[in-house]
Structures are given as C-alpha cells and as structure tokens.
Amino acid sequence: MTQKERYAFVLKYFEEHAPNAETELIYDNPYQLLVAVILSAQCTDKRVNMTTPAIFEQYPDVYALSKATFDDLFPLIRSISYPNNKTKHLIGMANMVVDDFNGEIPATVAELVKLPGVGRKTANVITSVVHQQPNMAVDTHVFRVSARIGLTTNAKTPLQTELQLLKHIPKEKVHIAHHWLILHGRYICVARSPKCGECGLRPACKYYAKLIKAS
C-alpha cells in the first residue's frame, strides 16, 4: 500500500465511522476552551471537565479571571496536574488577553503562542476547534497513532509529525482529522496494549502488519 493509498483508506474509514468527531472538553466559548486546553496539558479531559465548572462559575470571562489572585484560583485547580504553574499561566493569560487583545481570545497561532501557558499544540487546538483552521495539534495520541499506522515516517518531534500530516491530509479535513487521531489513540490504539482486534484500520496499519508477520 502506498502512502497515498494509506491516507485515503484511513480518512475514508474515519469519515464513515466518526463523521462528527469533536473535542471531549466541555466549553461554551473560546475563553472557556482556552482555559480547558491549558489545564489539559498532561491531564485527562475527564479530570479537566470535573474542574472547569467551578472556575467558570467564579470567573465567567477573561476579565474576571484577570483579576484573580493565585490564592483564590489555586484551590479550584489543585486536583489538576502541575497546579502551581497552571494557576500562574491562567492568570497571566487572562491579563495579556485583556491588556494586549482587548479581551478577545486571539484567532491566530502566532498571537496565541504569545500567551502564558500556550504552546504550539494549544494554539493549534484553539484555532482548529473554534475557527476550523487547517491546523494540526499533535499530542501524545496523535504522535503515537500516526507513527504506528504509518501516516508519518521517522518523525522524531511533534512538529515533524504535524508537517507530515498536513502534507497529506486535505485542508478541509485537517480540523476533524485532529479529533479522529486523538480519539483513536485514546480508545483503540492505546499506548501499552493497542486493541488491534477492534480496529478497522488494520488493512492499512504498518504496526498491525508487523504483528502478523511476527506471529
């Protein structure tokens, strides 16, 4: 199977079996999504969704969050991984959005990465989910799944993975392909014991082909 054929198979499979894939983070607006994504770094979406309602109740918008103190915000996110840093990042993010962007969450990767706690992956998530821009956020799931299936070749970094995926996935499908790969990695192509028996991508998967060859 050629690389072009592999991508075609994978995209067709997901289009048929997960046409409405979307983020599992719960949010109502760009501000809430940005807070949730910052909190989700090295933390499960389930834990974040348990935590954010109290934050959004006390800090309903970026202006309210910009006035938060560390001692007020920290107790609300202490169950999240790296709560000290994330508390500082959220307050710093809110202040910069208010001071530099007139209270509006930026809509470009270049602007978003200027915010505290926002790296390329987070910026790609925001622009992809909110604005459906053709940006591919690469987390551990996307990185692993892409390599296993064979969508990427010798990609050593998230950026290398991102660029290879963008080269082959049609622009109009990038925003949903991000969710396809994440959810597949979260529930089927898991890190330690991938559920190959349940996976519909077996005919196109290099990892599965190696398992068959070795058995």
Automatic annotation (TrEMBL):
It comes from Chitinophaga eiseniae. DNA repair enzyme that has both DNA N-glycosylase activity and AP-lyase activity. The DNA N-glycosylase activity releases various damaged pyrimidines from DNA by cleaving the N-glycosidic bond, leaving an AP (apurinic/apyrimidinic) site. The AP-lyase activity cleaves the phosphodiester bond 3' to the AP site by a beta-elimination, leaving a 3'-terminal unsaturated sugar and a product with a terminal 5'-phosphate. It is an enzyme of class 4 (lyase). Binds 1 [4Fe-4S] cluster. InterPro entries: DNA_glycosylase, Endonuclease3_FeS-loop_motif, Endouclease-III_FeS-bd_BS, HhH-GPD_domain, HhH_base_excis_C, HhH_motif, Nth. It catalyses: 2'-deoxyribonucleotide-(2'-deoxyribose 5'-phosphate)-2'-deoxyribonucleotide-DNA = a 3'-end 2'-deoxyribonucleotide-(2,3-dehydro-2,3-deoxyribose 5'-phosphate)-DNA + a 5'-end 5'-phospho-2'-deoxyribonucleoside-DNA + H(+). This is Endonuclease III. Pfam families: HHH, HhH-GPD. NCBIfam families: nth. Keywords: 4Fe-4S, DNA damage, DNA repair, DNA-binding, Endonuclease, Glycosidase, Hydrolase, Iron, Iron-sulfur, Lyase, Metal-binding, Nuclease. Its EC number is 4.2.99.18. The lineage of its organism: Bacteria, Pseudomonadati, Bacteroidota, Chitinophagia, Chitinophagales. Belongs to the Nth/MutY family. Residues 39-187 form the HhH-GPD domain. It comes from the Bacteria. PROSITE patterns: ENDONUCLEASE_III_1 (PS00764). Its cofactor is [4Fe-4S] cluster. GO terms for molecular function: 4 iron, 4 sulfur cluster binding; class I DNA-(apurinic or apyrimidinic site) endonuclease activity; DNA binding; DNA N-glycosylase activity; metal ion binding. One of its GO terms (biological process) is base-excision repair, AP site formation. [4Fe-4S] cluster binds at residues 189, 196, 199, 205.
